[in-house]
Amino acid sequence: MKTRSIAAALTAPLALLLVACGTTESGGDDEAPRANDSADCANDQTETATGPVSLTDSYGREVELEQPAERVAVLEWQQVEDVLSLCLTPVAVADAEGYSTWDTAEELPEGVTDVGTRGEPNLETLFGTNPDLVIVEAYTADDEIIKQLEKYDVPVLATKGADAKDPIQNMLDTFELIAQATGREERADVVVDDFNASLEEAKQTIAEADVATDSFVYFDGWIQGGNVAIRPFGQGSLMGELGEALGLTNAWKGEVDPAYGLGQTDIEGMSEVGDATFFYTGTTDPAGDVNAELAKNRVWQQIPAVEEGRSHAFPEGIWTFGGPRSAQRVIDAYVDLLTQ
Q1: Rounded to the nearest 10 degrees, how much is the dihedral formed by the CA atoms of 128, 131, 137, 139?
Q2: What is the sign of the dihedral through the CA atoms of 82, 278, 332 and 242?
Q3: DSSP conformation class of 35
């Protein structure tokens, strides 16, 4: 299962941050950054701001740019998606293959330099692309990855990984912060308006639908030592709060982590959520097909949601920690699966 973000780098030896990790070379510092030529962006009529940029990032760090950033390197998937939603193409990203598997809300064009894993980016390759801004997901202003990046004398925008107090607003704040840094605030308004309109329309659709139950649990999982570990998205999770924003009730009441609202349980634990409808990731983890393992389990098959056909896979490639475009796909999936 793909875990969250660059947090692994915080406990690894600092030398690991410079390890070469399956990079893909691009044109280097004399190659102009390309626009995102997706169909959505091909029709974009918004303008890019000009002039100096002065902003405060998610951790109170002052970021000063002579002009809006154009050559952006990005080390986390939500922020990669956000840059693409703003109709820009990053010059470098971490784990391009993983992004293209787990987050299909915005397609990553070919030729973007891959700087290795999110937890162990190759900084030499990253800065070889001559970025004018590096966007990283962090957990404190003193994160080790920020210190490492700042040694290269390139502005670093630190965004907040999660906020269980209001995950939807944190997702939007991150997106708008990147828009400000790149001068794409006008485009960001279009995307955020699209998200809000989708949410309101979906809420009305759910309210008018004859759903079996408004109680739900979204989960993913992984195989560990031959056993299935299940990760419910509880209170404070983006997936949980998007469901509740539609008028549903998150049935997972177990312990969750304070940042992402994620719990951990097993098959027996999931049998205790009553008549809740199940939703789960439809993206198959290359490390092991959790859903195939669950299907073999007798106890799992007797849980009401499974037995009654109310256990639904989301479409592949919906990143559960994504930006506004991923969130729209989440909303659409909830509606489609509940009203089919």
Answers
A1: 90
A2: negative
A3: B
Q: Tell me the pLDDT tens digit for each residue of 26-58.
A: 445 556 566 687 878 988 999 999 999 999 999
d(Cα 157, Cα 85) in Å, to the nearest integer? 18
Statement: residue 15 has pLDDT above 60: no
What's the farthest any 2 CA atoms get from each other in the chain? 63
Question: How open is the CA angle 203-208-212, to the nearest 5 degrees?
Answer: 95
Q: Is 277 exposed, middle or buried (0-12, 13-18, 19+ CB in 10 A)?
A: buried
d(CA 194, CA 174): 17
**Residue 61 has what pLDDT?**
94
Q: How many CB atoms lie within 10 A of CB 197?
A: 11
Assess whether pLDDT exceeds 90 at residue 156. yes
Which residue bears the tokens 């190659």?
Answer: 31
pTM of the model: 0.89
CB 1 within 8 A of CB 285: yes
User: Under DSSP, is residue 101 helix (H, G, I), strand (E, B) or coil?
Assistant: helix
- Going by pLDDT thresholds of 50, 70 and 90, the confidence category of residue 5 is very low
Q: Which runs of consecutive H residues, i.e. helices, occur in the chain?
A: 39-42, 77-85, 96-102, 123-128, 144-150, 167-182, 185-208, 238-245, 267-270, 290-295, 298-301, 304-307, 324-339
pLDDT, one tens digit per residue, over 126-151 is 999 999 999 999 988 888 889 899 89
The domains located in the chain, with CATH, are 48-182 (3.40.50.1980), 194-339 (3.40.50.1980)
In the chain, DSSP finds a helix count (H) and a strand count (E) of: 13, 12
